[in-house]
Amino acid sequence: QVQLVESGGELVQAGGSLRLSCTASGRTFSMYTIGWFRQAPGKEREFVAAIRWSGGTTQYAGSVKGRFTISRDNAKNTVYLEMNNLKSEDTAVYYCARNVYNSDWQRREMYDYWGQGTQVTVSS
After folding, report:
1. Distance of CA 92 to CAs 11, 74, 76, Å?
2. C-alpha span between 28 and 30 (Å, rounded)
3. CA dist 89 → 43, 92, 93, 99, 123 (Å)
4. Radius of gyration (C-alpha) of the chain in whole angstroms
5. Are 77 and 21 in contact (CB under 8 A)?
6. Which of 26, 44, 52, 112 has the fewest CB atoms within 10 Å, counting from its CB?
7. Could you report the per-residue pLDDT of 81-115, keeping only the tens digit for each?
8. Collapsing DSSP states into helix, strand and coil, what is residue 43?
9. What are the start-end ranges of the H helices in the chain?
């Protein structure tokens, strides 16, 4: 059984920064691509960023590229999402998830285990 736990979400002013963490249980964590998604009220859950198991390859949604950075520390079973220059439209619940197929990183259907989410609120 795999469990993912997100943390680090909070209320922040526009232009500020936050770092989210996603910590996983399970010995096979380092074998999988991990993605971050977010869901704002009344909207569908959307892809934010993902990182390959080795950490050498990353992918970002266009709306966050250049502002967000995803990284991972396999020794700590943790993936991070560094968010800078936050905007009000970044307000959402942020989820991390495991990509069981290690492909099609932007498709929700490729992810099997999800965390419970952490709330990020950006005030303008």
Report:
1. 11, 26, 26
2. 6
3. 12, 8, 12, 25, 10
4. 13
5. no
6. 44
7. 999 999 999 999 999 999 988 889 999 999 999 99
8. coil
9. none
